[in-house]
Design a protein that fits this description.
Layout (H helix, E strand, L loop, with lengths): L15 E3 L5 H4 L11 E3 L4 E2 L6 E3 L5 E3 L1 E7 L11 H6 L1 E8 L2 E2 H10 L4 H4 L5 E2 L4 E2 L10 E6 L2 E7 L7 H9 L9 E3 L7 E3 L4 E8 L2 E2 L5 E7 L13
Parallel strand pairs: 1-13, 3-9, 4-17
Antiparallel strand pairs: 1-2, 5-8, 5-14, 6-7, 6-13, 7-10, 11-12, 11-15, 15-16, 15-17
């Protein structure tokens, strides 16, 4: 499990829910959603701090997407759409995350109307920071997220650009499936996503009122994933 959630939960397999947001939808020529929608990343995609590189499968066009992660603090089910108080009370803390995406596989899935599971779900495709105490982020809709590749800043924007605010995202998911303590919700990425290659270094962070949170720092390299003999990916090429 994501080790830094252990202070919140003994649950062995937190689920990562993702919510597309920000100008990233326009950036990829996606329709801006009129209501929150989400997809899943498996627990095996979580890469804890200092646990090694992101592994890029052969033939994958690997993209980064920096996101604020909400860590659920207690069980939640069937929350009302406008119940902001209970939604915020269910947050146990935060983290920074990088949603790694096999963009070429996602493009194939989108054209065929298929789920994005393969594009999002490879091992190590969710690097995460250390756990951030809830009181260190008094307003999760007013923090700056940034990401650099090889020292060059690629993403930098405020969470106030979210298409849907966090309480709405939480309530929407809770009406479909029960949220449990330790579950991880990624809240969307700003514009500036792009491709990384083997050997690249990703650095990401979060600032609150102009001050960087050391707990929210991520630094991770990209490496090739070893392929078993005869294994192939359908990359459409």
């Amino acid at each position: 499990m994501y080790g830094n959630v252990r202070k919140l939960s003994e649950r062995p397999d937190p689920t990562a829910f993702l919510q597309p947001a920000y100008d990233h939808a326009k950036e990829l020529s996606n329709a801006v959603p009129t209501k929150p929608f989400f997809f899943l990343k498996p627990p095996s995609s979580i890469l804890e701090p200092s646990q090694g590189p992101v592994l890029r499968p052969h033939g994958v066009e690997l993209h980064y997407e920096v996101e604020l992660a909400v860590i659920i603090g207690h069980k939640l089910q069937d929350l009302g759409e406008h119940d902001e108080e209970d939604a915020m009370a269910a947050i146990g803390g935060y983290a920074l995350a990088i949603d790694m995406t096999a963009r070429n596989l996602q493009d194939i899935a989108k054209k065929k109307g298929l789920p994005w599971t393969e594009a999002k779900g490879f091992d190590t495709f969710l690097p995460m920071s250390n756990f951030i105490e809830k009181d260190l982020i008094p307003d999760p809709h007013n923090v700056r997220l940034y990401l650099s590749t090889n020292g060059q800043e690629r993403q930098s924007d405020s969470t106030n650009l979210m298409i849907f605010r966090i309480p709405r995202i939480i309530s929407e998911i809770s009406r479909v499936m029960t949220l449990d303590h330790g579950d991880i919700i990624l809240t969307g990425t700003p514009k500036g996503v792009g491709e990384v290659k083997t050997g690249d270094l990703l650095t990401a962070g979060i600032e609150v009122n102009g001050k960087e949170l050391t707990e929210g720092k991520i630094e991770v390299e990209i490496a090739d994933r070893a392929s078993k003999r005869g294994s192939t990916l359908n990359t459409g090429k």
